[in-house]
Structure formats: structure tokens, C-alpha cells
Amino acid sequence: MSAERLKYTEIADALAAEEAVYQRLASISGMHYAFVDTYGCQQNEADSEFIRACALRMGYTLTDDPMQAELIVVNTCAVRDHAERRVLGNVGAMSRAKREHPDLIIVVAGCMASRPEVQERLKKSFPYVRVVMSTNNLHRLAEDVWQAMSTGKRVYDTDNSCDRVVEELPRDRDRSLRAWVPIMYGCNNFCTYCIVPYVRGRERSRLPEDVVREAEERIAAGAKEIVLLGQNVNSYGKDLDICYDFSDLLAAIASLPGDFRLRFVTSHPKDASRRLIDTMAAYPKISPALHLPFQSGSDRVLKEMNRGYTAEEYLAIIDYAREKIPEIVLTADVIVGFPGETAEDFEKTYELVERVGFESLFTFIFSPREGTRAAKMEDPIPAEEKSRWFDRLIELQGHISCELHEAQVGKEFEVLIEGPYHGRQGGTAARTPGNRLVLLPGVHTPGETLRVRITGATMSALIGETI
After folding, report:
1. What's the CA gap between 55 and 144, in Å, rounded?
2. Most buried residue among 101, 243, 338, 466 by CB atoms closer than 10 A?
């Protein structure tokens, strides 16, 4: 069944609240500033576009200085405990801003704010946080700000059951070269280690025409790379009452006129089909890059993780991708030290990494998240042993990355200029069609496409020169 869209009354309520805040600010002389602090994934970055647009419509001017702001919105991440501690530390530091600006409204929103334990902690230990709102309630931001502003009371908009898709309220579309375009929200997979389904809810797909229209608008505004977002983009369309899936959406956007590249994150192996690979191979605008998290090479551990595929099935889609797209660049996520993982299980992960030869890995030592099934599992393996496994895998991946990059020396690519490179080497950062980082000497114009020859390589980047 298709996810509901916002009802007319809800849109009217949101717009009325925006107008009320706008009129209140207009009655107070001077500029009024808003600061938006974003943590976590690209989906959070896309959500912050909506937050910034709402702040602008309420009459605020955006600032990068929280000490200047009268409205601070912290858009949080809950995927890892480390990220949560970091956010709470930074929110704690905002007490100084509240002391200097008593009328400051601090809003904590996003995935972390959707967790009951965090809501209770914010309530008890952070009294200067005026609004706490769950992930699926961002369309009510202006209403919550107005309530806090007009009543002086704290607002807890923490019922995360809303499963509607927000299309009617605009986002603050910047004119950067890379455009994050959400195609769906939520997740139905319930991997035993993951908090996302609990904080973002069930899967809700946007209508194809809405996604394609947004892509067209971003291309017209100068975007050179469209990145489609979803917790599991391969599930796109399953909740819609039409016969239309992610491959259809990819083909529709890749057929749009204009000079741009098309990428997507993240794919789930259980839903990554041959049709998806065939679509990638058929359209030159689709980047030959596939991020396909495997998490473990052990079928026993994969079952405990509730991943829904085997190592053999994962390797089959990798082999098919390499057959159809020989130049494909593969990346993945892997968890080391899942509860109950044995040395034998880890060796299977190690062997899978050797077998595939990933461009890079996002590698994590298992970190329990309260509220997930894995957090309650017995975990007898010492942390020191997990660290040794982790170090071995990092060392292996370093060798593989170096070999893959050295194999590119002498080749030529059309690269997209991103902008200045801020590492020690300086120069300019660019990307190959497969999303490999290329460092070029000198200064080049962002958005420009150049033909380059690869002259050197490091573990993390290619070194190039213009032809």
C-alpha cells in the first residue's frame, strides 16, 4: 500500500506556524539567525535541507556561528554510540549560548531524538533544550518552534508513528555540484544490530514523478552529480500501488537530458538484482560504482544478523556485476566481532575480502545499540581479540587498495572537478566516473570535466595530470 502524503490540514498548519514565527521576528528589530548542525548520513544531510528551508521561511537568516543564533537545530544520528556521545557533548556545550541568549530556542531532532532513552536524558539533563522532535515529524518543525516561542514551555514532539511522505513543503536547495535526492524513507529489514528501523520507521517510497521532477530541478540548478538516497534503495517501490521498481527509477533519471552523473546509496545484497546491474550497464550516466555492504563472510553470522542472504549469494551478484561492468568500483561495509563471532567466522570474512578485492571498506568493530536484538546477545570474545581481527582486515584492505590504485597508473579518465583539496598536498580534488578520488596540481573550476592521465597512486587516492 502506498505511503500517505501530508494532508491539506497538516500543510496549512505548518504554513500558519511559519507565518506566525515570521511575524513575531518581524516585530523585533534586527537580523535573526538560525544555525543547523548536522550529524550522520547523507539522508540527514537531505533532511537538513528541509530544516534550513523552514528556518528561512520563518524569517531567520542562516549562520555558521551558533553563538550568533536565536534558533539552533541539531539534526542527530543514532547509528553508533560514539556519534551519540559526541552529539550530547556538543549539545551540552550549547548551554553557554543559552546563557548569553536567554530567548535562544535549541531543537534536538533526528534519529537520536527518536530514541526514548535519549528523550528522557534530554528532558532531565539538558533543561535548556526547548524542543525534542522525532525523525518523522520534521514537517512540524515550525509548529514546535512557534509553540516553544509563544508559550515558553518545552515541546516534546516524540511520537514517531507518522508514516507520511513530505512533498508539499519545499527544501533549501543549495547549488552545490552534488545533489542528495531521497527516494524513500525508513527500513523494513530489522538487521539485529541496527537501530534505523526503530528511529526512521517502515519503508515509504516517494512517487516516481516526484523524484524525477526533483532530479530535473537539481540538474537545471547546476548539479553535476545526482545521488539517490535510501536505507535500502533496492526496496524502492514495493510499498507503491504501481508496478515500478528501483531499476525503473534509475533508467528514468539516467534518461534525462543534461551533463550529470548518477549514483545511489545504499544497496542491500538480498535485493540487489541482475536487473539492477543490467540497468547500470545500459546507461552511461550511471556511475560504475556499487556500494554493497556484506557485513560478514560467515553464513552463520549473517543469519544471526538477519541479513537474508549467504556469502555465496553475495559473491554471485558481485561476479555478475564484474561481468557486465568490468570497470566497476566496489565498496562495502563490514562488522568485525559480532556477538558470538568465532575466529573461524572471521577468517571467512577475511577470505571474502581477499576474493572480491574492494576499492575500500567501511570497517567497524561491533558496537551494541540499546534497543536492538544484538545488544542482548552473549558476546564472549574479548575486545583485544576483536581488535586483532580488525587490524588484520585493515592491513589487508590497505594492500588491496594500493594494488587497485597502482593498476590505474597510465590510464586516462574524464574526471569531474569537485574543488580545492584540503589535504597536505593541496591542489584540486576530482572524481572519476567510478567515484575514485583524483588529486590534480593547480587550481581548476568546480563542475568542470577534464581529461586526465593517472601518474601516481596512494592507498586513498590517484594522482593525475591534465591532458
Report:
1. 12
2. 338
Q: Give me 348's grid cell.
A: 571467512
Give start and end residues of each alpha helix (H) in 175-273: 196-200, 208-220, 246-254
Q: Which CATH architecture has domain 173-287?
A: 2-Layer Sandwich (3.30)
- With vertex at residue 319, the alpha carbon angle to CA 316 and CA 323, rounded to the nearest 5 degrees, is 140
- Intervals of CATH 2.40.50 along the chain: 412-466
For Cα atoms 202, 11, 29, give the angle at the middle one, nearest 5 degrees. Answer: 120
Q: In the chain, count of helices (H) and strands (E)?
A: 14, 19
Tell me, which fold does domain 290-407 have in CATH? Transcription Regulator spoIIAA (3.30.750)
Q: How far apart are CA 263 and CA 228, in angstroms?
A: 6
- Tens-place pLDDT, residues 90-135: 999 998 888 888 899 999 999 999 999 999 999 999 999 999 999 8
Q: What string of DSSP letters covers 166-180? A: --SS-------SEEE
Alpha-carbon gap, residue 370 to 84, rounded angstroms: 12
CB-based contact 311:457 (threshold 8 Å): no
How far, in Å, CA of 152 to CA of 223, rounded? 42
**DSSP notation for 353-399:** HHHH--SEEEEEE----TTSGGGGS---S-HHHHHHHHHHHHHHHHH
Topology (CATH) of 412-466? OB fold (Dihydrolipoamide Acetyltransferase, E2P) (2.40.50)
The CATH code of the domain at 8-157 is 3.40.50.12160
For residue 404, what is the DSSP state? H
Question: What pLDDT, in 10s, does the model give residues 129-159?
Answer: 999 999 888 889 999 999 999 999 999 999 8
Side by side, which strands form the sheet with 105-110?
61-62, 33-38, 71-76, 105-110, 129-133, 155-157
Pairing of strands 428-431, 437-440: antiparallel
